[in-house]
Amino acid sequence: MLDESGKRTCSVGGYRADNGCPSDHPFSPESDRLSTTCLAISDNATAAVGDDFHCLLSCDRGASQTTSDPADDAACPGDSVCAVGPTRLRHVGVCVYV
User: Fold this and answer.
1) Which residues have CB under 8 Å from 6's CB, separation 6+?
2) Residue 86's CB: how many other CB atoms inside 10 A?
3) Contacts with 22 (C-beta within 8 Å, 6 or more apart), sequence order
4) Which of 28, 52, 54, 91 has its CA at a distance of 20 to 30 angstroms from the CA of residue 45?
């Protein structure tokens, strides 16, 4: 989904739903542990809430938010790990490189 300026937009929320984010990620296509989610994230502290949307690769967490789980991390691409926090759902993380 693109806005009139050609910038990609998405709809916040919609865990594992049609939210305007690509769903054809090549990282673990056979895995049901990965999906895309849309979050409003900005490095501009004065930006209006929901002013800057981004699609992120989310991962299901089997362990608690403070316990490392190699299976969760293995679902993410490359050397990234499944980190909990940005989605505010304890059972859903975001694949990040640390």
Assistant:
1) none
2) 16
3) 36, 55
4) 91
How many Cβ atoms sit within 10 Å of the Cβ of residue 83?
18
> Helix or strand or coil: residue 54?
strand
Judged by phi (left if over 0) then psi (alpha if -120 to 50, else beta), residue 6 lies in left
pLDDT tops 80 at residue 8: no
What is the pTM for the complete model shown? 0.72
Question: Quick one: tokens of 78?
Answer: 């490359």
Q: What is the DSSP letter of 20?
A: S
Alpha helix stretches (DSSP H) within 1-98: 70-75
